[in-house]
Design the sequence.
């Protein structure tokens, strides 16, 4: 019977003795399954509903509870309430009282939430690669495929909050000359 091979000294240092990189304090919960960057991201946005809410805020102009309920995916009210709270706790969205009706709330992306634009672009391109039947204009697809970084930057150009925990200073607007975002 063979003895199991010992891990190389270099690998041992990387895995067992690795110290997490120092980062700024965040609004993330204090307890995590691990400090792996992928795990941390998935804890914040690792379910489909959270990303669809971010999509609706960023691309479809939905900013209210009722607006999210009207999305074609038909999220259940209890799940929507849970995900909105989770996104707010993780610093991805803000919730403020509606100026016209204090019983309602307006949701907005924070800079941290707007920084998910490249993730949405990559998820879209991944889907296009394996599922050609998508509900998206061909012009938008070609524009996104041509230069995904520029496309993602255009998605976030109107989100200019002062800090990662503050709401966007103005609502995203569609440039009348460039209607790409309205086609999404």
Sequence:
């Amino acid at each position: 019977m063979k003895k199991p091979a010992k891990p190389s000294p270099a690998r041992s240092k990387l895995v067992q003795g690795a110290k997490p990189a120092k980062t700024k304090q965040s609004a993330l919960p204090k307890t995590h399954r691990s400090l792996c960057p992928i795990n941390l991201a998935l804890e914040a946005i690792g379910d489909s509903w959270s990303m669809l809410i971010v999509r609706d805020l960023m691309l479809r102009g939905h900013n209210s509870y009722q607006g999210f309920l009207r999305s074609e995916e038909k999220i259940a009210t209890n799940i929507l309430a849970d995900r909105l709270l989770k996104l707010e706790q993780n610093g991805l969205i803000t919730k403020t009282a509606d100026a016209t009706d204090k019983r309602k709330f307006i949701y907005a992306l924070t800079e941290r939430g707007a920084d998910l634009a490249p993730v949405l672009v990559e998820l879209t391109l991944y889907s296009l690669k394996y599922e050609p039947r998508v509900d998206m204009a061909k012009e938008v697809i070609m524009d996104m495929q041509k230069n995904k970084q520029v496309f993602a930057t255009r998605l976030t150009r109107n989100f200019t909050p002062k800090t990662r925990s503050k709401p966007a200073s103005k609502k995203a607007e569609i440039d009348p000359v460039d209607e790409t975002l309205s086609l999404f």
The first strand starts at residue 93 and ends at 97. Residues 116-158 form one domain. Residues 8-17, 162-184 have pLDDT under 50 and may be disordered.
